[in-house]
Amino acid sequence: MCLASTIRRTFLPTLLGLLFVGSAGAQEAKTKEVAHLKVLLVADTSDPVLAKGVHRDTKNFTSFLANNIPKERYDLVVLTGESITPDQILAHYKNLKVGPDDGLLFYYSGHGSIRPGKGHTLELQKGKNPLTRSDVVAAMTAKKPLLAVLLTDCCSDRLGLTDMNSKEGTPHAANIPTAPTTLVRKLFFQTQGLVDITAATNDVALADDFRGGYFTNAICRIAGQNKDKALSWKEFHTAVAKETVAIHQDAIKKGIAPQLRKGQQFQEPALINVLLTGADAPARVAAVVSLVNTAEAELEVEYRWDASQPWLKKKIPANGKVSIGTWLPTALAKLPDMTVKIDGHEQTLTPNRFDKEGTPKFSDGKVYRLGAKKDDIKGRSRVFELDS
Hints:
Blueprint lengths: L4 E6 L15 H6 L4 E8 L7 H18 L5 E7 L5 H10 L6 E14 L3 E4 L8 E2 H9 L5 E9 L11 E2 L13 H8 L2 E7 L4 E6 L3 E2 H12 L7 H21 L16 E8 L8 E7 L6 E6 L7 E5 L4 E7 L10 E5 L2 E5 L2 E3 L11 E6 L11 E4 L2
Parallel strand pairs: 2-3, 2-4, 4-7, 7-9, 13-20
Antiparallel strand pairs: 1-10, 3-8, 4-5, 5-6, 9-12, 10-11, 13-16, 13-19, 14-15, 14-17, 17-18, 20-21
Helix pairs in contact: 2-6, 3-4, 6-7
């Protein structure tokens, strides 16, 4: 915690469970559209320092729903404060009536961490055990919805509870839509399968009292800017990730968020899992580069895919290997090159194309190995060399 800025630490979980689609045939699945969206919004307002940011997240996300979806097309249940327990959330899904044409959306603002043997967990303060992300996925997919979406804006702080009750209802929108916007229809009604995104990749996630969570803020901004565009989840995630980085940079510049620690990256949301069915299934395309650190010490590099975007940072363990990817529109004819910066020297790397199910792994990228300095006296920069 630094002044008005709250750190929310989230980490990339292990592979999650698969989504089981209903009994309809493959051809029917391609043409079906989600008829009704059932939304569960869980807001951990338990800490007086964090509470304002979480309240802002709740307002931002409920407004996002109200301004993009007609009220008759979705149900909203909001759980907040002391009423929240892992058992309560799981019981909500166990008792929820889900039809074959329904979609499920789970949004969470609060605490998150990685626990040994449990993976990513939602750190609710009431109840004997934390709620694992995999348990939420399992509870949702067990209902066999056409679409299950998890969006989490998580922090890792341990906080006390306040007295607030569960609520149910739909927020007021200044201009109630008569139909879902083009963007939201594509994301939540014309997509089938599983989508799972969290606020940060292997690092901290942040919020402040003025904007709320930077990830949630980015979702709302990108939705507002692209309401008439039918972006896929991969394209939407890419845009939200860039916007989250921009918000984080702005908060640092204004003194709201703390300066980056040594080795820390700008907050970049993690696309944990996308398992799509129907017409969207083949549209998973990314450019991927794999970097190998041959040194005996951890290596930090900067990279970007577009010269107009800010530099991002990536740490590579000693004698380790990482992959870096960016999601692409399927119609893009040429893969973008990656620019990587090491020792102040910029280098252009050519990626591999990734167009299969699942999340890209380091084995999917074109491999570049770190070369040693050839002339230490003249101080030449190290470079990455294509692995032949």
